[in-house]
Amino acid sequence: MSGHQFDPTILREYDIRGLFEENLNVEDAFALGRTLGAIVVEQDGRSVCVGYDGRLSSPALEAALVDGLSQCGLCVLRVGLGPTPALYFATKAFQADAGVMVTGSHKPPAYNGF
Predict the structure, then answer these.
(1) Rama region for 95: left / alpha / beta (φ>0; ψ in -120 to 50; rest)
(2) What whole-number distance in Å separates Cα of residue 103 and Cα of residue 113?
(3) What CA–CA distances, in Å, run from 68 to 10, 72, 94, 114?
(4) Amino acid 106: pLDDT
(5) Angstrom distance (rounded) from CA 78 to CA 63
(6) Which residues are catalytic?
(7) Are 10 and 67 in contact (CB under 8 A)?
(8) For the whole model, what pTM was predicted?
(9) How confident is the model at residue 3, as a pLDDT?
(10) What is the Cα–Cα distance from 78 to 91, expressed in whole angstroms?
(11) Does the N terminus or the C terminus of the chain have fewer Cβ atoms within 10 A?
């Protein structure tokens, strides 16, 4: 996907975190899906597990992420609402090539990320 610009303040070494609809939005989630999807496909991967936490913004971010991954031709296994360890378990149990959790982790409720 060309042309998308992430707010550089949300990009970190191990995650992406930001204030929903301020510096992190559904367009970012879609772009992340397309980017990660391209990497997984390039490495001959076929499937990705996706889960999300209970934040109000998580379902919208999860849907956009799944759309981006799906547009790369990947099988997306939607784990649904749950804790991050459930995503880890599903990724291993389903032998998926990657896993992404939509979560704000320890941040306040206005934040979210991946």
Answers:
(1) left
(2) 5
(3) 19, 7, 20, 14
(4) 92
(5) 10
(6) 105
(7) no
(8) 0.95
(9) 85
(10) 10
(11) N
By the 10 Å C-beta count (0-12 exposed, 13-18 middle, 19+ buried), 86 is classed as middle
Token duo for residue 59: 């379902």
Tell me which DSSP letter residue 31 carries: H
Structural domains in the chain, CATH included, are: 46-114 (3.40.120.10)
Rounded Cα–Cα distance for residues 22 and 19 (Å): 5
User: pLDDT tens, 23-67?
Assistant: 999 999 999 999 999 999 999 999 999 999 999 999 999 999 999
Q: End-to-end distance of the chain based on CA atoms, in angstroms?
A: 18
The amino acid that residue 20 corresponds to is: F
Which token pair is 111? 């934040």
Residues 6+ apart with CB under 8 A from 95: 47
Q: Nearest to residue 98, comparing CAs of 69, 59, 71?
A: 69
Q: What is the mean pLDDT of residues 3-16?
A: 94
What is the dihedral sign for C-alpha 78, 84, 88, 93? negative
